[in-house]
Specification:
Elements: H1 2-24, H2 39-54, E1 58-69, E2 76-86, E3 91-101, E4 106-119, E5 124-133, E6 140-151, E7 155-164, E8 169-177, E9 179-180, E10 185-196, E11 208-220, E12 226-237, H3 239-247, E13 253-264
Antiparallel strand pairs: 1-2, 1-13, 2-3, 3-4, 4-5, 5-6, 6-7, 7-8, 8-10, 9-10, 10-11, 11-12, 12-13
């Protein structure tokens, strides 16, 4: 009986010891191999693994919104998309938003961004680069600093700070969510908020919250890469920006029924 007690006691001690070891284990990956190989060899092994499993160069092109908007009887064509090229750690990201007014036969908005993208967290990237607006009368260049990624509860977020060559500071926040009604039918709420630190009358922008947009789109993915959609979008100029819009004889608020395609490859 004494021998049996000793075996039980030894088993309990061993179990406690193993559990304590696991509880205190906070070593980084490959730490056990570091005990047997030199730091130089381990650094080379890590470099090789990262190159083979995360060093590939790939690309991605997305037309997130290619759509016609009714815009209260003043139809618009909108293209909002982005593309990137690079690896897991560093990418060149290009973003563009074009808005063409059929009645006026001109671009209401024509924006292009070229950004360096680098991960700062598991689901978020930092982006830095330049933005240029090509619209006549509002031709300006900005420095850009922002973040883009997937927030908790699967909200896709894109936030950026812009500083123009004249020192004007503005910001933009975009968020969207994909609600899967079925595996192919997807409802997507979306919002976009634009802010300005100071008024820029020559381009019709007032300080504070300048414009707000809320949208709801329902798409059907015929293929994952090809999805037609319909929806509704509401835009509103706010505060001093709304005053500039009224001074030009336009309505600061508009509701649009939209129809378009979401494409990627």
């Amino acid at each position: 009986m004494s021998s049996f007690k000793h075996i039980i006691f030894a088993g309990v001690i061993a179990s406690i010891t193993v559990n304590a070891a696991f509880a205190q284990e906070k070593s980084p990956p490959w730490s056990q191999a570091d005990e047997y190989y030199s730091p130089t060899e381990m650094a080379e092994a890590r470099r090789a693994v990262q190159a083979e499993h995360g060093g590939a160069t790939t690309y991605y092109v997305l037309a997130d919104r290619l759509e016609l908007q009714s815009n209260d009887g003043n139809p618009l064509l909108l293209l909002d998309g982005q593309a990137w090229w690079g690896g897991d750690r560093n990418k060149l990201t290009l973003k563009s938003e074009l808005e063409y007014d059929f009645d006026a036969s001109r671009f209401e908005e024509a924006e292009f961004q070229a950004l360096w993208t680098h991960p700062i967290a598991r689901y978020f990237d930092m982006q830095a680069g330049v933005r240029h607006d090509f619209v006549s009368g509002a031709d300006r260049t900005f420095g850009v600093l922002g973040i883009q990624g997937l927030a908790p509860y699967w909200f896709e977020v894109d936030a950026a700070l812009f500083v123009s060559g004249e020192g004007d500071v503005s910001a933009r926040f975009e968020a969207e969510y994909e609600l899967l009604l079925t595996q192919r039918l997807i409802l997507q709420p979306r919002t976009e908020l634009n802010f300005a630190a100071q008024s820029v009358p020559e381009v019709g922008i007032g300080s504070g919250l300048s414009t707000a947009e809320l949208g709801l789109r329902l798409r059907y993915e015929i293929k994952r890469q090809f999805a037609p959609y319909v929806g509704v979008s509401w835009t509103r100029s706010v505060g001093e920006t709304a005053d500039f819009v009224r001074a030009d004889g336009e309505d600061p608020s508009a509701v649009s029924f939209v129809a378009g395609l979401r494409l990627w490859f």
